[in-house]
Structures are given as C-alpha cells and as structure tokens.
Amino acid sequence: MKKIVLLSVVASTMIMAGGDIVPVAAPAAPVEVSGWDFSGNAVVFYQTDDTTWITSRGVTSPVDNSLFSQGASAADAGFQLRAVNKDVFAGIGAGMEVSGLATLGLENWMVSDVMQSVDGTSIDNVISGGWISQLYVTYGVNNTSLKAGRQELPQSLSPFAYSEDWNVFKNTFDSVLLVNTDIPDTTLVGAYVYRANANGMHANMQDFNNLNDQDAVYMLTAQNKSIEPSEKPKESI
User: Fold this and answer.
1) Considering the entire predicted model, what is its pTM?
2) Residue 8: inside a domain, yes or no?
C-alpha cells in the first residue's frame, strides 16, 4: 500500500497593532539636598497691666492706668529667621538666628511702652531694629557634644542662667556649653558664660553685657534620671 505523506504549510496572518511611539525620557540627574534647615516665626505681643510699672514710662497720664488703656499697655511685633546645619564640614555644625522688633505705630494710639527694645529705653528710640540673637558652632564625639558661641541656654541644662520665654523673644548668651551622657541616666554639663542680654520689660536686646563684672561665670551641673518618681497614692473613696 502506498503511503502518501502530505505536508501542508499553513500560513498564518499576523496582525500587528500600530500606534505612536513615545520616546523614553532620559533618567533625571540626582538632586543634591542641602544640609541647611531654614525656619522662622513672627509674633505680635501685647500686654496690659493696671500697675504703675508701665504707666511710669507712658505717654499718657499715670492716672490712666486702667486695663486696656494706652497708659497701661505695651506691645511689640517681631520676627526671627534662622538657619541650622548639623554637618557643615567634618562633623562641625553651625547655626545662626537674626531677630527684629517693631512697634507698628501702636504707640500712637494703643500702647505707651514696648515689651523689648533695640537701642534704648525711650519708646521714641525703639521703633524698629534688629540683632543677631544666635551664632554658634557645634561638634560631637560619641556621647560628648560641644556648642560655642551665642546661643540659647535651656533651664534643664543651665538652671542658674537660662533663656526665658515669657517675653517676645528669648534672651541669649555668649557661652561655651559641653554636654556628656556617658554615665547611664545621667547628663553632665559644663558651661562658660561670659556675656548676655537681659530679658526684662523694655530691655535693650542689642546690649550684650559682661556677666559678673568683667569676669565670666562657670557652671557645672549633673542631671540623673535613674530614680523613678514614686506613685501617687490612691485616694480613698
């Protein structure tokens, strides 16, 4: 029997879908992130007091000492701009802050004094102005950090000379601060403070005077948190 082998070639039609070809964009170059952090704040601070410590310098009669009267009120508007970099070069950081004050003309109709001043004690001389409130460098090795220059001193680290926040802006110090935390639950602080501005009613914030006459102030503090606070006794019903 003769076998016939049939070879068939099946041609299939390929349908190709067409369309616009979108070119692939080149990868974007990496963006270098700056190590500087910038921030700022603005504030309007108003205070009224019916005692004579404001009216004694007021532009109105000292008799006008009722609450919210011009003779019993003081105010300031202020702004702060700051820049901080924790690693400018080889682990050395830096920070700067500038502060400014203005009365916004409130002394003409609303207040008779300022909370903080910039170049004197008379409201006629303290309309506006500014100063460098912080300018410092930092460096840290293991559990020890160093901060030198004009800076804020927190009360927790420097309980006898610290930056107060009850007024428009905090007072600052020209000082060197050394902090170590090698001992568990303990913070050791050494400080050398040689100049500061005062934070008082209509205090001149541009005036950084020497402390302790012409001598500096040395401080050494230790803060330990190993002792847990005792539980508050339960109240009986």
Assistant:
1) 0.78
2) no
